[in-house]
Design goal:
With about 110 residues, the chain is mostly helical. The chain is built from 5 helices and no strands.
């Protein structure tokens, strides 16, 4: 009697598995009215194919990390810094599109 355990072969280890159906809600499903503007959303937890490098000061990095910890500790949202940044970008771009010259981004950039 052979008591050696059998291991899966390479074909079994590397076989493609069926993708689970997406449970993500599209922005058109979120909108409650035909006339309501669609809000931009951060891309969330998806595979990203494009990368940018952004340099931040030590203070900005610390503030970002503190925000992430507040989101986790006070709001039960376990997100990484990248997700926080993507959501912040979506919010700022929505504000710019909606308010144009009166947007927070335009006002802050003019202050500099």
């Amino acid at each position: 009697m052979n008591r050696r355990p059998t291991l899966p072969g390479a074909a079994e280890l590397f076989r493609l598995t069926a993708a689970a159906p997406s449970t993500e809600v599209s922005s058109t499903e979120v909108s409650s009215s035909e006339d309501a503007p669609q809000q931009r959303r951060g891309s969330g937890r998806t595979k990203h194919t494009t990368k940018i490098t952004v340099y931040v000061s030590d203070e900005e990095l610390l503030a970002l990390e503190q925000a992430r910890l507040v989101l986790r500790g006070s709001h039960s949202l376990g997100v990484d810094r990248g997700r926080v940044v993507r959501e912040a970008i979506a919010i700022v771009l929505d504000d710019l599109e909606t308010h144009g010259d009166a947007s927070l981004l335009v006002r802050r950039l003019r202050e500099q």
